[in-house]
Design goal:
Length: about 425
């Protein structure tokens, strides 16, 4: 790790805070100054992220709230500062744990982002690398390079980082409602299913975030779209987290990039798993899997189900294609909350996203348009969902990138 830290240190330039001017397979060192507040990573060229034109429409026109910076605008922390912000990384501050390491709740001053000692100020999430993690430096660097330069309402904000001796940490905005996975799959008498209207809101937000990533001149392939990587703020606005596997799309006339297979079983596109060919629309397949999870209420992979239902996509695709059998796929907890036309459109969209040929899948911009069309139908539904804000609050404990549940960790990062 010391050698890795020295390597990345060679291209990190520490200075004053500036204003913005515009990874391992499938899953499976120097002291910084506390006064330094900005790290500019020089490994990515400015032109890589400049706005471009997609299908004749300016990216700025389609995504007025999105921004791509010429250089990262992040606060640099020392390890001692983040130790103070998290109350010495006490167990009670742990929000979750994933392949990268544990995620802790911390507190910083809302204006300066300096650590706050007394559990006051703004809550943040601090992800701390486990020294034994197989993800390590490469994915830490990817997070800083990508999230440090892109801004969109549906992408989690990276606020700062620490590279202090052998310690690698990342500081994010705190997402009060936790992950979509926590809300969608938890069962019990006190938990009501996520209502149809909220599922659509979350899907649209996540789709907009993915569409924005695909809209830059050198498209960004997210590569690990799944329910545990979709985080929710206090108003259930969806934001994509964990950019450790993000990768630039193909150059010029190329249709794909060839890379080592990384991601999560059940969500990764079949062409990517079998050949290592990664397309921008490989992300669309992953979105289709999550869309199927949302309409069915079932996990993509679940060994506890009957043999034919272990793999949700394989079981559900024939049923989605037959409107007479669609009810067998729909989550029974959603009964009465959606129109039959809305459910049919959702099923058709799911099938298109899950098409075996990446060229035949819709763009994420097209996905957003269809989801918005389905959402507009909600006013025609007679019965309102019974979901209350109080029960939702019990379902999420507050979350940040990445604190996957145990089931997700078992299916990801290892091939």
């Amino acid at each position: 790790m010391g050698n890795c830290a020295s390597a990345i240190n060679s291209f990190v330039q520490r200075g004053t805070r500036s204003s913005p001017s515009a990874a391992p397979g499938m899953s499976a060192s120097r002291r910084t100054s506390s006064s330094a507040t900005t790290g500019k990573l020089s490994t990515l060229s400015t032109s890589t992220f400049m706005p471009s034109t997609i299908s004749g429409v300016s990216v700025d026109d389609d995504y007025p709230d999105g921004q791509i910076l010429e250089s990262p605008d992040l606060k640099i922390y020392t390890f001692a500062e983040l130790k103070s912000a998290t109350r010495s990384f006490r167990p009670e501050t742990v929000l979750g744990e994933g392949g990268f390491g544990k995620v802790y709740k911390g507190w910083v001053d809302e204006k300066t982002l300096n650590p706050s000692r007394s559990s006051i100020g703004m809550v943040v999430a601090v992800k701390k690398l486990n020294p034994e993690s197989v993800q390590g430096m490469e994915q830490w660097q990817s997070e800083v390079n990508f999230l440090g330069r892109i801004s969109h309402p549906n992408l989690v904000k990276l606020l700062g980082y620490c590279m202090d001796d052998n310690e690698l940490l990342l500081v994010y905005e705190f997402m009060a409602k936790g992950s979509l996975e926590n809300h969608l799959f938890r069962r019990g008498a006190v938990y009501e299913p996520l209502p149809w209207s909220l599922r659509l809101k979350i899907l649209i937000g996540a789709a907009r975030g993915l569409a924005f990533l695909h809209s830059s001149e050198r498209q960004i392939i997210y590569r690990d779209f799944k329910a545990s990587n979709i985080l929710l703020d206090s108003h259930f606005n969806a934001k994509l987290s964990d950019f450790g596997l993000a990768k630039h799309g193909p150059d010029g006339e190329e249709s794909h990039v060839t890379t080592r297979v990384m991601g999560t079983y059940g969500y990764a596109a079949p062409e990517y798993v079998s050949t290592g060919h990664l397309y921008v629309k490989s992300d669309v397949y992953g979105f289709g899997v999550v869309l199927l999870e949302m309409i069915s209420g079932l996990r993509a992979l679940d060994p506890s189900r009957q043999n034919e239902k272990v793999n949700l996509v394989n079981w559900a695709k024939p049923l989605l294609a037959d409107r007479r059998k669609l009810s067998q796929v729909m989550d029974s907890g959603l009964e009465g909350q959606y129109s039959s036309k809305g459910a049919l459109l959702a099923a058709q969209l799911t099938l298109k996203c899950l098409n075996g040929d990446p060229k035949s899948r819709p763009s994420m911009k097209e996905v957003v348009e269809v989801l918005e069309q389905i959402e507009s139908m909600k006013s025609r539904v007679r019965r309102e969902p019974r979901h209350s804000g109080s029960s939702l609050t019990r379902r999420g404990q507050g979350y940040s990138p990445r604190s996957d549940s145990g089931s997700s960790r078992n299916n990801s990062r290892g091939r």
